[in-house]
């Protein structure tokens, strides 16, 4: 499973979202690729109004307010 977390520095919502994602990671055991949207102009343009964004296998599964239950349901389903 390929899980990407899009965020940027100085984003409190991103810090909270990553904390929630890591709780789910402890349960399910997957790796997280953290991507700073400010390092790539195309990614920044795509996600700047949505961050934080969690993507699984190329599909956005949640963005903005990240919650544990939704992440668990989406990431546990294969």
User: What share of residues are in beta strands?
Assistant: 15-25%
Oligomeric form of this entry? Answer: single chain
Query: Percent range for helical residues?
Result: 40-55%
- What's the rounded overall pLDDT mean? 94
Overall geometry comes to: globular
Strand order of the largest sheet: 2-1-3-4
Number of helices: 3
Taken in chain order, the helices and strands follow as: EHEHEEH
Q: Count of DSSP E strands? A: 4
Furnish the topology, listing elements before pairings.
Layout: E1 3-7, H1 12-28, E2 32-36, H2 41-47, E3 53-56, E4 59-63, H3 68-76
Parallel strand pairs: 1-2
Antiparallel strand pairs: 1-3, 3-4
Helix pairs in contact: 1-3
What are its keywords?
alpha+beta
Folded structure, characterized:
- It is a single chain.
- This protein is 42% helix and 24% strand.
- By secondary structure, it is α+β, with helices and mostly antiparallel strands.
- It has a four-stranded mixed beta sheet with strand order 2-1-3-4, with helices on one face.
- The mean pLDDT is 94.
């Amino acid at each position: 499973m390929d899980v990407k977390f899009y965020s940027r520095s100085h984003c409190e919502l991103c810090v909270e979202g990553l904390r929630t994602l890591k709780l789910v990671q402890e349960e399910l055991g997957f790796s997280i690729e953290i991507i700073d949207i400010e390092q790539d102009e195309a990614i920044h343009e795509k996600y700047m109004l949505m961050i934080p964004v969690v993507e699984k296998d190329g599909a956005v599964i949640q963005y903005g307010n990240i919650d544990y239950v939704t992440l668990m349901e989406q990431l546990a389903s294969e």
